[in-house]
């Protein structure tokens, strides 16, 4: 099987391990830098160029799309999908995984355990929302943070109110657990 691993970090541990595992299983595998693709569109003929050359055909793609390139990376994955190439992670799945609120909505709908969570916009909803999740201490998260960035612990109701007020004054979207 001919596999492409989409990754901007060919030397990252996870990319190297995926490549090693594929090679051990006898697959032809290449690591392709996601940012080196050009997407060509015309009626009925989706196409991809890699480093200014028409991309050869692949049986499957293993996307390793970093958060900083989500928009472009999911566009490349979508193009592979439009070309009929199996993608281990779909563009839609990658996008959902990057949206904390959407991820929790999906998990909740499928009855998968999640912490009691609330998402709000109006300052008047802060205290009732904190009470609904069980009161302080409470975890407050920026909706767009990744890998623990933008996660705060408020030990008291007063601290939670202060943190949320500060974040909202800076136009940050927040949620509580």
The CATH class of the largest domain turns out to be: Alpha Beta
SSE run = EHEEEEEHEHHEHEEHE
Gyration radius, to the nearest Å?
Answer: 21 Å
- Oligomerization: single chain
CATH topology annotation of the largest domain: Rossmann fold
Mean pLDDT: 88
User: Got a strand count?
Assistant: 11
Helix content range: 25-40%
Shape: elongated
Number of separate domains: 2
Total helical elements:
6
Unreliable stretches (pLDDT < 50, length at least 5) are: none
Which class of secondary structure composition applies to the elements?
A: alpha/beta
Second CATH tier, the architecture of the largest domain: 3-Layer(aba) Sandwich
Largest sheet: 4 strands, parallel
Strands side by side in the biggest sheet: 2-1-6-7
Distance between the termini: 44 Å
Strand fraction band?
15-25%
Structure description:
This protein has helices spanning 13-24, 70-82, 91-98, 100-109, 126-132, 157-169; strands at residues 2-7, 28-32, 37-40, 47-50, 53-54, 60-64, 86-87, 118-119, 138-142, 151-154, 174-176. The protein has two domains: 2-97, Rossmann fold; 114-176, Dna Ligase, domain 1 (2-Layer Sandwich), CATH 3.30.1490.20. It is elongated. It has six helices and eleven strands. It is an alpha/beta fold and 177 residues long. It is 36% helix and 24% strand. The strands form three sheets. Strands 2-1-6-7 form a four-stranded parallel beta sheet, with helices on both faces. It has a four-stranded antiparallel beta sheet with strand order 8-11-9-10, covered by helices on one side. It has a three-stranded antiparallel beta sheet with strand order 3-4-5, with helices on one face. The mean pLDDT is 88. Strand 3 (37-40) and strand 4 (47-50) form a beta hairpin.
């Amino acid at each position: 099987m001919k596999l492409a691993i989409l990754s901007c970090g060919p030397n990252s541990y996870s990319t190297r391990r995926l490549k090693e595992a594929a090679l051990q299983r006898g697959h032809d595998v290449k690591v392709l830098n996601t940012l080196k693709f050009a997407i060509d569109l015309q009626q009925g003929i989706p196409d991809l160029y890699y480093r200014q050359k028409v991309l050869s055909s692949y049986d499957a793609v293993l996307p390793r799309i970093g958060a900083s390139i989500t928009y472009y990376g999911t566009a490349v994955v979508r193009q592979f999908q439009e070309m009929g190439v199996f993608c281990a992670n779909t563009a839609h799945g990658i996008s959902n995984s990057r949206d904390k609120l959407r991820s929790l909505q999906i998990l909740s709908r499928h009855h998968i355990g999640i912490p009691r969570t609330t998402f709000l916009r109006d300052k008047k909803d802060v205290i009732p929302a904190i009470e609904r999740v069980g009161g302080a201490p409470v975890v407050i998260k920026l909706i767009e943070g990744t890998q623990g960035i933008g996660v705060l612990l408020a030990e008291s109701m007063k601290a939670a109110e202060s943190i949320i007020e500060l974040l909202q004054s800076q136009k940050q979207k927040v949620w509580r657990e």
